[in-house]
Specification:
192 residues, mainly alpha, 7 helices
């Protein structure tokens, strides 16, 4: 084991910025309103497992099914784009259909918001610079932060109020839109 505090801190901050759980608060509140409840523990655990498995096997899994990392990122960017449009325009693009209300804990919460294309491709990039055990510690730290935010989202909703949530939702919708466009353009260029 080669634990390095500086590498852990750097990887944690990079993942925290990419996951952007603070920016995701309006989305989480919106999902909680649609579904009635979010399984914070399960969603956090699944996101952590997805990230760790992808860290270790990600490139091999994608190549096995014939998908390039950049193609994966472009597909995820499109999903983020539509979620951002929902936030900005106040429309509903994702219909629940026959899915159970509890499905909101997993889609679009776990993927693409928490363990999405941005964080998964970032993990592959981090692996080139840092040892796997340091990145796993960074993932665990981020999952703990995610769990705390998910668990307290109801209190945050009461604290911010309807108008506060609406304003934050629009602001972070634009930020999420910009992230999706950046993710799309940087990866679409690499496909051609």
């Amino acid at each position: 084991m080669n634990f390095n505090f500086k590498d852990i801190a750097t990887a944690t901050m990079i993942l925290f910025a990419v996951i952007d759980i603070i920016g995701g608060i309006p989305i989480i509140i919106g999902l909680r309103e649609k579904a009635g409840r979010i399984h914070s523990g399960r969603a956090s655990l699944i996101a952590g497992i997805v990230m760790i498995v992808f860290l270790i096997l990600g490139e091999q899994i994608l190549h096995l099914i014939g998908i390039d990392v950049n193609e994966f990122a472009v597909a995820g960017a499109l999903i983020l784009f539509f979620i951002a449009l929902e936030m900005i325009l106040g429309v509903t693009l994702f219909k629940e259909g026959n899915e159970s209300p509890g499905m909101a804990s997993y889609f679009p919460l776990v993927f693409p918001l928490l363990a999405g294309p941005g964080s998964l491709t970032t993990l592959i990039s981090l692996r080139a610079e840092y040892s796997v055990e340091n990145i796993i510690v960074a993932i665990v730290i981020n999952i703990l932060i995610i769990y705390i935010v998910l668990k307290t989202s109801g209190r945050l909703q009461r604290l911010l109020g309807t108008n506060g949530i609406a304003i934050i939702k629009k602001i972070f919708g634009v930020i999420l839109l910009a992230i999706s466009v950046k993710l799309f353009t940087s990866n679409i260029q690499l496909l051609f």
